[in-house]
Amino acid sequence: MNLARFDHVTRRYGDVVAVDDVSLDLEPGVLVGLLGPNGAGKTTLLALLQGLRRPTSGVVTLFGGDPRDAGSRQRLGSTPQETALPDTLRVREVIDYVGGHFAARVPTAQLATEFGIEDLLRRQCGSLSGGQKRRLAVALAFVGRPALVLLDEPTTGLDVDGRRALWEAIRRQHRGGATVVVTSHYLEEIEALAERVVVVDSGHVIADDSVERILARVGVSQVRLRTTDPAALAALPGIAHHERADDREILTVSDADAFIRELVRSELDFRDLTVRGASLEEAFLALTAPRHSDAALALKEAS
What we know:
Rossmann fold
């Protein structure tokens, strides 16, 4: 049985279509990365699944019921993008209060140890740093031993070490049986955590597969080079994304061989050329590039 389902779901805000005819299933036991540029519809999808919004058309089901029914949400945990905690309550009191809503809750000390916040239990929430508040907010999503957890930008405000520690805690919860959906601006986070990746753009699901298969299907490569005339690169075909770093041009291209042939034919001055396979970040840039780009069109046709 699917834990959740979107069946031809559309959600409009006035003239803005945030989610456009999305059909999507969430199966038990999978760690899902939900990706998309700002305004793509990710947060709206999570809000629909939590019963915070209702679809304009189509049907959303959660554990076989309506997400707006409290009974359907008993096995759902979530962490929103914005962390709002009562400043005067201590961390232990917040965990106890939230945990008290669940019959089979995780004990406070165990949860604190799992998420590395045991030294914060006596602290008032108002005295916590942004990163500490974020770790607490993520921990609260798991206090009721949920079957499905929605984490919207879970590591915002954390340093590199804090992100990696939280990743490992999320992995342990997943190994313990939780199905987890993660949205993140850190694409290395999705690459490190997710078994399945769903890419959303302009309210549409444009890719839904494993990380490995998405990288293989989009077929992009990264080309790095130096040139005295970077503006001339725009005339070459197959470029899905172009940026500049450390005096080098970094190009995400749909066909590295074809691009290099055209580069040589153009007689453009270049040096220090390197080519490698794409990371998830580069594949994501190609997927969400303007719809006329070669890579985006190729993936849309393959889907």
